[in-house]
Write a structure and sequence with these properties.
By secondary structure, the protein is an alpha/beta fold. The chain has a single domain (14-260), classed as 3-Layer(aba) Sandwich (Rossmann fold). 25% of the residues lie in helices and 25% in strands. The chain is built from six helices and eight strands. It has helices at residues 46-49, 73-81, 101-115, 134-144, 213-224, 247-260, and strands at residues 14-27, 32-43, 53-59, 85-89, 122-132, 165-169, 199-204, 229-234. An eight-stranded mixed sheet has the order 1-2-4-3-5-6-7-8, with helices on both faces. The longest helix has 15 residues, at 101-115. The radius of gyration is 18 Å and the shape is globular. The chain starts with 13 loop residues before the first strand and ends with a helix. The model has no long low-confidence stretch (mean pLDDT 92).
């Protein structure tokens, strides 16, 4: 059966540039180096439109012991369709590295992306960090340490890793109170100042891995410091729950980032 249909162009097509090397980290007892990579999602039409789009730097979770920067690309492509460049970033894991090397990697990735802003169609003055679980913790730390140069190592130090917004998903923040200890990792509360960028904190009320009290402590600290911040509790959501990947949440995050960036 032959048919003809009319189709309107309602959604932007998204492309991926996978496994871009942004730095290296000593490995195997310091005897060799291993590459650190990120994958970039972008609306296809931006490559010939001349636009510079806002950037979301995404950090996935993995209990600080494992990370795959490509596993969340299907969900992150929804944000690229909405007009963001999205960089999903690999960072070092334990026990091969120790804190704060994970944070150093994350901040290096931000500086790398800003250094290649023209090449990657992004606006270096409109950058947000977003991540889930362990990646949410790194998200919080990146947002709170943008002016702290002691973590700026391994390249592109002429560029700033300050960001304009942060969206942590079910992130640990008071590491000393976590059920599962992570030696060496710091509590974020002492790092919060009035200079922090706007925050949108997301957490499910049925999270039995990272208790919701972790986000409550973060939000209370942000509010006490006078930081522009919102805390959204996702009813019925457990840790890593698909409820965080529904259109209602995407619209919430998109609206926040569009306003702050």
């Amino acid at each position: 059966m032959k048919k003809e249909i009319d189709v309107t162009l309602d959604e932007r097509r998204v492309r991926v540039a996978a496994n871009i090397v942004y730095g290296q980290r000593k490995y195997w007892g310091g005897q060799i180096y291993r590459n650190l990579s990120l994958s970039l999602l972008y609306p296809e039409d931006v490559s010939h439109s001349g636009e510079s789009l806002p950037l979301i730097v995404w950090f996935c979770g993995g209990a600080f012991t494992e990370v795959d920067c490509n596993i969340w690309l299907p969900e992150m492509s929804r944000y690229a369709q909405r007009g963001f460049i999205v960089a999903s970033v690999e960072y070092s894991t334990t026990p091969a590295t120790v804190f704060p090397e994970q944070l150093e990697d994350a901040k290096l990735a931000i500086r790398f992306l800003k250094a290649h802003a023209k090449e990657y169609y992004l606006d270096p003055s409109r950058v947000a960090v977003m991540g889930e679980s362990a990646g949410g913790y790194i998200t919080v730390l990146c947002a709170l340490t943008g002016k702290d140069k002691k973590y700026d190592k391994n390249g592109y130090e002429d560029y700033s890793d300050e960001v304009q917004a942060a969206v942590p998903w079910y992130a640990p923040s008071q590491m000393s109170l976590m059920p599962r200890p992570h030696p060496g990792f710091v509590d974020v509360a002492p790092l919060i100042t009035k200079d922090a960028p706007p925050f949108l904190v997301l957490h499910g009320d049925r999270d039995d891995l990272v208790p919701i009290q972790q986000s409550e402590i973060l939000y209370e600290g942000l509010q006490k410091a006078g930081v522009d911040s919102d805390f959204v509790v996702i009813k019925g959501a457990a840790h890593g729950d698909p409820l965080l990947c529904q259109e209602k949440v995407r619209e919430l995050v998109t609206a926040f980032l569009s306003e702050k960036l």
